[in-house]
Every structure is written in structure tokens, then in C-alpha cells.
Amino acid sequence: MVLTQRQGVHFELRLLDAADDGAKYQISLLANERKWQGELELLAPTGEVRFQFADGDSPPEWCLGIARATARSIYRERANNGFPRRVNRWRPSPQVDTRGPE
What we know:
Layout: E1 8-19, E2 22-31, E3 34-43, E4 48-53, H1 61-81, E5 86-92
Antiparallel strand pairs: 1-2, 1-5, 2-3, 3-4
């Protein structure tokens, strides 16, 4: 099965600011032939993730969930690696079956 952009979400994080306990990223998401731009903030001490989008129009929750999970992983790993300057990921949408034939 060939996966396309329409069947998932592509997102990119670019570091804007980082401190020992949190970070702020510019986030761009592309899904369902739409694009959203905004900011993602990681907050201490829990690694809570907050989104703010410039036009007030948020992406679907499944897109935010995927970006949130990646951001929380970044937060947990920051002690070893610091906050990465750039993160670029593509993930399939929840309804896409990537297992192939059984």
C-alpha cells in the first residue's frame, strides 16, 4: 500500500526558544490538503503541551494528538539530548491500515 499526504499528517517543529524546563516551537501541520501554522509550547514540570494557531482554526484532534505525543517524547528526552532545533515527521492517519495483507 502506498501512503500519501492525504492519508496522514506531516508536521514540522522549529525551535523558537528553550530553557531548562520548557521550550517553544513553531509548528506547521499538513493534512487532508490543508495547512496550519502556529506555536507549540512544552511546559514544566509535567511536559504539558499547549497549541496556539495563528488563524484560530485548529487542525483535527487526531493530528494534534500525534504532534502532542512527539512533543512529549522530546520533553522526556531533553535531559540527554536537549531540545532539537528541528523535528520533521510524517505519520499515517488513524483510519489507514498499514499492516498489509494477512
